[in-house]
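Two proteins were folded this term; both appear here.
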Amino acid sequence: MTRIQTFIDALTAIRKLAADHTHSKPIASAIEQLEYLIAVEDGLEVDRSRLDTINIGLIAVREIEGLDEDAAEKLHEAAFEARQMI
């Protein structure tokens, strides 16, 4: 699986979770971060300065694991890929 596909899969999973948790700021943050990662990987975003502030792995541990294990795992995979981009 490519890096961008890992990000897309995580975004899809977290968006499904967001449908049931519309007021969750951590979920909204994860969506924003994944959209940024996709844009950077796709070359649409040239500002890579935010890469070191990505905290989707932490969000997965603190907020998502108790709600949706599959979404949490996808966020962990995306977090790993994001760390490789720094």
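Next, the second protein.
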Amino acid sequence: MKITTNHHDRHFVYFHDLTEVQQKNALDDYDYLTSDMRNDHWIVYKDQVYHLNDFLARKNIWQNGPASLFDYDGFTMGSYGNAHVTGLLIKVSDDQESYRIAEYFC
């Protein structure tokens, strides 16, 4: 498994900080979020908008696995093809105000 990150912490974005287009798309794509959940914990990574709820908790899925995965709190499945899996990993700060993101490929 290859993990790529720049090790930079980023602050979560509030809904009102998203562009108008991003807000419209987020309302369509995340219509299941309550209004309280919709206010914060947005991530813009490589021009794609994610919400913290997109990430599955690693501890609930991977009890065992590569040691490098234990540095992260959650993951998304990006794509699967040609026998390869890609996605994102996230490490959330203790105060839940910022995060570190990485891409994985295996």
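The longest strand covers residues 84-92. Residues 2-105 form one domain. These notes refer to the second protein only.
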